[in-house]
């Protein structure tokens, strides 16, 4: 039986929904899918942060301590806080987590948000620890520090050694830096030899 009471109810419901949704439709359509995904991502990161923080506090899990430090550093699941990131990186680094040691050293070198008294010179032991453990970004950074003379006495042989190790580990920035340094040294040596020949 067409046009029965149920059809009339469905028709009225559709009409009510149209009337209710019409004013908010432009708002719904203006929502950017990235904003929706970002909101969902924030929720996921907050949950990860809480879980990792609980694990990091309850035991001596270097991977969880590193994860908490990284979330503080990036502001994922919590507000960015370099000092808290450093605290958690140091806890993980003391247990041999090489990436945490590198990030602790990197914060000492480059962060402007650490507590008073923190010094770039405090970076060296942590970057060296990560470099000795075979972490290529730390080897690269240690090579750069030796080359620049920042926080450590300048040493081209040490710079070549550490950049070479990072290059051997196929770390792209080290390949470029090592090759540029070798070219520069060859050019300097050639100029020195030429100068000595001219004097004779």
From TrEMBL:
It comes from hydrothermal vent metagenome. This is Sel1 repeat family protein. It holds the Pfam family Sel1. SMART domains: SEL1. SUPFAM superfamilies: HCP-like (SSF81901). InterPro entries: ISR_Activator, Sel1-like, TPR-like_helical_dom_sf.
């Amino acid at each position: 039986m067409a046009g029965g009471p149920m059809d009339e109810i469905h028709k009225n419901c559709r009409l009510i929904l149209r009337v209710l949704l019409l004013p908010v439709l432009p708002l719904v359509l203006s929502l950017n899918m990235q904003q929706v995904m970002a909101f969902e991502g924030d929720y996921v990161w907050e949950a990860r942060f809480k879980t990792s923080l609980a694990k990091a506090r309850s035991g001596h899990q270097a991977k969880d301590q590193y994860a908490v430090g990284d979330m503080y550093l990036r502001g994922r699941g919590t507000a960015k806080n370099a000092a808290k990131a450093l605290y958690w990186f140091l806890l993980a680094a003391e247990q041999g987590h090489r990436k945490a040691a590198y990030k602790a050293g990197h914060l000492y070198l480059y962060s402007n948000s650490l507590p008073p008294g923190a010094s770039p010179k405090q970076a060296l032991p942590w970057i060296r620890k990560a470099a000795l453990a075979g972490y290529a970004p730390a080897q690269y950074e240690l090579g750069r520090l030796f080359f620049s003379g920042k926080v450590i006495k300048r040493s081209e042989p040490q710079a070549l050694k550490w950049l070479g190790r990072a290059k051997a580990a196929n770390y792209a920035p080290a390949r470029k830096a090592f090759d540029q340094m070798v070219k520069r040294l060859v050019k300097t040596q050639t100029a020195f030899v030429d100068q000595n020949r001219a004097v004779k």
